[in-house]
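Researcher: Next sequence.
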Amino acid sequence: MYIKRRQVLIAMLVMSQLGCMAFGVLWASQWLHAAFNQIIHRSVTLQAESLALTIARQSSDLADLQQPVDASGSKDSLQRLVEQLNVPHDGFVSIVRTADGKVIAATLAAPAGIKAGTALTTETLQTGKGSPQPLLAALAQDKGEGKQSFVSGMSEFAGQPYAVTALGVPQHEAAILVALSDASVNRLSAELVTPMIQVGFVLTGAVVGATAICTIFLVRRFDSTLLEVSSSLEREVERRTLGLQRSRNAVVFGLAKLAESRDKDAGQHLERLRTYVTILASELAKHNSKIDHHYVANLAIASALHDVGKMGVPDAVILKLGKLTAAERRAMQMHTVLGDECLASVERMLGDNDQFLTFAREVAAAHHEQWDGSGYPYGLQGKDIPLAARIVALADVYDALTSHREYRPAASHAEAREWIVSHYGSQFDPEVVEAFIAREVDFAKISQAAAQLDERRVAASAQTPATAEFEQAPATRSTL
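Model: Next structure:
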């Protein structure tokens, strides 16, 4: 997702830059087109004026313009002169009399209806100096001054627009008309502007492409640097977190060992319990998606605090070897409530919903609850008992049964297995029992190693073990 966001950001940057530059190129092309149009039209007007003056100077028959047109419809000398002209921009030249609009001479490229001997129709001339006016009236307006003058503007001939420049010769009541095709002039402007626009778009693409490449390069370098810094920070955080967890686990296990040390028969109970819990939770994880490696690790450490409440039980009860009275039994059972309250106060002080503390509270409070609801302290039944407590309950009973006590010998794995299976669905969660059966080989190896250690410890002890049989007291003080 992180990379996709970077890609979208780059795409938005490139598109915005491309849009801005494209808008700039289009605006510049419009401005250039208008500017070139003005320049070219001014140049065309000057060309037309120059051409009209050339015709006026070269024509020796202008003095005879008032003579009648011959039978062929033109004066031969003027017609030949006009036909020899090279008129640019698909234009034409005609010489007319302003009095009656008679065409004296015209180039062959002139539109239909404009030829020698015909009368020029009254075309509207747009001079740009006011309202449109008839062309012939514009040509004759300087007649009284007796001077040659130019009239320029736009007019239409045969339905096509032309840029018209007329040189009036008022002393002879004639005019030289030079008309250049407006479409041809516009094509010339477009031919000049279009390459510039194309170059502009090519440069825009090149600039945007180069910017995109540089942006991608810089973003990747930034991401690479950020990833390195992030990885370094993650490693440091993980290292410190693991260090804190190890410190916490060591403190927790030390406190649990301190509570357990009051029972001189406990031995390595916490170490074995942690191993049994890890085995059971790992097996259950195969069919329970809620159990992951964090769950297993936290539960294994939290299991050490299952009897932390025994710190509040009187020594006379904890150290008593004989059968407990009803009052002593109630005092012993209070260790679950005391452990829950102790860990709850820790949880409130930290103000954090930590999975480890949650497991520790659940285990301390409910590891003596039974599946059929006959346990204590709250008489929870079935899945109302937290899963963490159900796992620790079986592991705790198994270790208590297979461990040597001064008032009874250790049971074998087979005897402990038979006793646990006989309480399937009554004291223990069926799923936890099935996980125990699936991994009983591992349980047997651990209990056998513990038994050998107990034998060496008993052999080195000068005390005589109690003669109470396992069958007579399967639920010992360690399982209360």
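Model: The first strand starts at residue 92 and ends at 97. The chain has two domains: 2-188, 244-479.
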